[in-house]
Each structure stands twice: as C-alpha cells, then as structure tokens.
Specification:
- The chain is an alpha+beta fold.
- It has three domains: 61 residues, no CATH class; 81 residues; 160 residues, hpI Integrase, Chain A, CATH 1.10.443.
- It is built from eleven helices and nine strands.
- Helix 2 packs antiparallel against helix 3.
- It is extended and about 75 Å long.
Length: 348
C-alpha cells in the first residue's frame, strides 16, 4: 500500500525493495503531469528518508514552473544557483561567492520583484559607502541581472524588475605588455635558469627544475598567447613538431575544455619549440629511466601532478617582481596573441 506524504508516495514492491514516486508537476510542452519513480533497497526507515528527500527536490522543481511573485531575493538566488546553466567551474565559484553575500545582505530579504533599478542604485551607493570598490559592486549587479532574467524566463517571476536598466560598465580592453618589457623578462628568465646551473654551492635540482619551467612558461605565454588556465593544463605530448595543440584548460582547478570550447593549433616560434623539446628531454634524463608524467608544469620532478593555476601565476609574478616589472602579469602576455610577427628570437 502506498503511503502519501505531500508530493511523494512510498510502496513496498517486495521485501527490502521500495518504490518511491514523486510528482514533478505539469510538463510545459505536453501539458501532462510528470512523475518520477525510483527504487530504494533497504529498511523502511531508509526508504522514508529517501522519499522525503526526493519529495523536497521535486517541490523545488515544481516551484520553478510556476509564478512566485512573493519569493524573496535570497530564495530566488538559491534556486538560480542550483539550476543547470552549463557554467565553467570558475564561473560557478565566482557566482557562489557573490550570491552568498547577497543572500546575507539586507537586500536578500526583499521581494525579488521589488528590486527595481531605483532600489538597486540605492543599494550600490550603500555598498560603496561601506568601502566596497566598484568592480565588486558591478559584479553584484551583473549577478542580480542574470538571476532575475533567468527567473523571468523560467516564469518564476511574471516580469523582470530590472528590465530596461543599463548594465554595468564593461571592463576596459586589456592592453598587451610592452614588447621591450617582455624581452627583458625573457632575458631575465634565461639568466635565472643559467644561474641555477652554475651555483657555487652546487646544483639545487628543485630550484633548477622550477627555473626551467618558468623560462618555458614565459616564452610560451609570449609566443602562444595562451590563457593561464590553458598553460596550466598543457601536457608534454601537446607539441608535435612546432605545432602546439591547445585543447583543454583548468577552471577552478578542474581540467576541462577551453573557455571558448574550441581546440586551437598554433605554430610556435622555432626557438620556443626547441626549448620545449630540449627541456622535456632534460627532465626525462634527470628521471634516470623512470617514467615522467603527462603534465608540462609541475612541482614534482616526475611531473605526475599538475601545477595549479594559482601557483603558475605566483611563479610568473615572482620572476616579474625579481626583474622589477611588478605591473607585468601573465594576463598581459595573453593579449600579445593579437600582435603579429613579434621578434622573440634575439631575446636570448
């Protein structure tokens, strides 16, 4: 016999096997009621817990299919964050942080439909008076606009309260690094690598290993114009001849497709490609016959673990700071890909 509780029912099919049925509401296309049936194996108490859990999830699904003009902003942001959007991991991390603040903020307790342009402008001024910088304020505005637009498209709200409000200013165009500054940085990276091999105290293999990677990182970033996440996800076999295949990237330390979800094949400069091959051969010789892992950048001498994107950025920043180029970031070299025929070959 089925035991009904809210939108969930529980029925014993045979000893130790229970059928849980939950209603997902009316299908928007066919107009038919949709029900999901699942089987739970175990004791009656376990089955009841599963029914209650799935009934609560089904209630959330049903709530997304009906107008809820009274929903407050915090509840709406929670539903928006839990929905499937196909975001990259780093995007999800950023939105989690922003929505976490907005849910705790007094604004999160207001009805979502009451968050009008006038209200939001007043909130932005309040955030600024508390010391919040404009980029953070604009990030919150973009998050709110996206969530409210989604709620209207999903018919949770019968209107978008921010419809017609101009969006926040877009970030300025990222300028490429000055060519002479990059020349100096490459030359300094060669000097650091050379010094690591000629230390009067003997060769520190760990220090030398890092210097070799930083040198290769700087040349690759300047030559290929790859993003930091793409550089962190490079593998030893991604170079064939002088052609580099960029097919993956690290986002919030999760390796997946590139930001554009496209595979790029780039012809590197002859010196950069030769440096890649020579450096990899050096690592394999140093391993003494032991297998070397797949990752190009790694803290470990065997390269079986990938270097994180944050650590890659720290290594680059340390080199730039050592060369008194504190304003030079890895992202500045990424924009060099828009330039043509950069003469790196005489940088050594």
């Amino acid at each position: 016999m089925a035991r009904i509780r809210g939108a969930g029912s529980l029925r014993q099919r045979r000893p130790g096997a229970w059928e849980v049925r939950v209603s997902l509401g009316t299908d928007a296309v066919s107009g038919r009621s949709t029900v999901r049936s699942l089987t739970v194996h175990g004791e009656h108490e376990l089955a009841e817990q599963a029914r209650d859990r799935w009934a609560a999830e089904a209630a959330l699904v049903r709530s997304r299919r009906q107008v809820r003009s009274g929903i407050n902003l915090g509840e709406l942001l929670g539903a928006w964050l839990a929905a499937e959007h196909g975001w990259r991991p780093s995007t999800l991390v950023g939105y989690r942080s922003t929505t976490g603040f907005l849910i705790r903020d007094p604004l999160g307790g207001r009805r979502a439909v009451d968050v009008t342009p006038r209200v939001l402008r007043a909130e932005c001024e309040r955030w600024r008076r508390s010391g919040t910088r404009d980029p953070t304020v604009w990030g919150r505005v973009r998050c709110l606009r996206s969530a409210l637009r989604w709620a209207y498209a999903e018919r949770i709200l019968d209107r978008d309260p921010l419809d017609g409000m101009p969006g926040p200013p877009q970030p300025g165009v990222r300028l490429h690094a000055p060519v002479e500054a990059v020349r100096d940085l490459i030359a300094h990276a060669y000097q650091v690598a050379t010094a690591a091999t000629t230390s009067p105290d003997g060769v520190d293999v760990v220090r030398l290993h890092r210097a070799e990677q930083v040198l290769l990182l700087v040349r690759l970033a300047a030559d290929a114009g790859a993003r930091r996440g793409e550089l962190a996800a490079l593998q030893l076999d991604d170079l064939e001849g002088d052609v580099l295949t960029v097919s993956r990237a690290a986002s919030a330390e999760v390796v997946g497709p590139t930001k554009t979800r496209r595979i790029r094949r780039l012809t590197l400069g002859a010196t950069t490609a030769a440096l890649w091959r020579a450096t990899v051969e050096t690592w394999r010789s140093r391993a003494g016959g032991e297998p070397v892992g797949p990752w190009l950048f790694s803290r470990d001498l065997d390269h079986h673990t990938r270097l994180s994107t944050d650590c890659l950025g720290h290594w680059f920043a340390a080199l730039a700071n050592d060369d008194r180029l504190m304003d030079l970031r890895l992202s500045n070299l990424n924009s060099l890909k828009h330039m043509v025929a950069l003469p790196w070959e005489d940088a050594e």
